[in-house]
């Protein structure tokens, strides 16, 4: 999908429905997955620095823990603006529950935003692979973080976070595989779902929740 074709963002139920219908027509195997998964709404988070900081906050935490920490963090005066975040000392931020690593990662990102090296507006106009490459060029942003940002903050329609363990397990279960696909295998499989890969990810997360009675991702 070219940058100028990124017009149908996943930012409404109508958009998700359009992408889902096209996805099921493209790969009929997913109809059974959809029946088991049931309906799923679009999921969104704030754009820019705030959205990326929230994703980092929630990494490797339960939903309840992530929400509690984020509530304390966003209550800090200046925490949600990259310029003023740089004025907060580490002990103040870590008192909210942020680890030392997450404090440093968000600081590096804030510095990049303030310097103009990280432009979130630019990201939104790029095709999936270009956008991931742009984000991961900045220290502290890995592929999973970049892909989650693109999906939930930018509403990018053609991103599939193949490194997500829940997605690997869900796809393996849905297709009756002996083992969950590797990241490389899942990247290859997801190409068949382009340009609706983000909707495929939402579908498989919902499927994972249905078969495991738990959420597949923290946001």
From TrEMBL:
GO terms for molecular function: hydrolase activity, acting on glycosyl bonds. Residues 57-208 form the HhH-GPD domain. The keyword Acetylation does not apply. InterPro entries: Alkylbase_DNA_Glycosylase/TA, DNA_glycosylase, HhH-GPD_domain. Keywords: DNA damage, DNA repair, Glycosidase, Hydrolase. Pfam families: HhH-GPD. Its EC number is 3.2.2.21. SUPFAM superfamilies: DNA-glycosylase. It is an enzyme of class 3 (hydrolase). This is DNA-3-methyladenine glycosylase II. It comes from Devosia nitrariae.
């Amino acid at each position: 999908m070219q940058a100028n074709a990124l017009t149908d963002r996943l930012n409404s139920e109508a958009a998700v429905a359009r992408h889902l219908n096209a996805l099921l027509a493209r790969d009929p195997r997913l109809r059974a997955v959809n029946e088991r998964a049931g309906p799923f709404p679009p999921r969104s988070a704030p754009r820019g620095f705030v959205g990326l900081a929230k994703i980092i906050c929630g990494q490797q935490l339960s939903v309840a823990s992530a929400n509690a920490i984020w509530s304390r963090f966003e209550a800090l005066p200046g925490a949600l603006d990259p310029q003023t975040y740089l004025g907060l000392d580490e002990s103040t931020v870590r008192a909210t529950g942020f680890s030392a690593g997450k404090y440093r990662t968000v600081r590096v990102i804030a510095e990049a935003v303030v310097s103009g090296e990280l432009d979130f507006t630019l990201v939104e106009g790029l095709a999936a692979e270009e956008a991931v490459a742009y984000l991961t060029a900045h220290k502290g942003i890995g592929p999973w973080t970049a892909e989650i940002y693109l999906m939930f903050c930018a509403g990018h329609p053609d991103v599939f976070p193949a490194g997500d363990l829940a997605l690997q397990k869900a796809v393996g279960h849905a297709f009756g595989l002996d083992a969950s696909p590797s990241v490389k295998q899942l990247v290859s499989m997801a190409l068949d779902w382009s340009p609706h890969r983000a909707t495929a990810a939402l579908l498989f997360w919902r499927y994972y929740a249905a078969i495991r009675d738990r959420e597949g991702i923290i946001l």
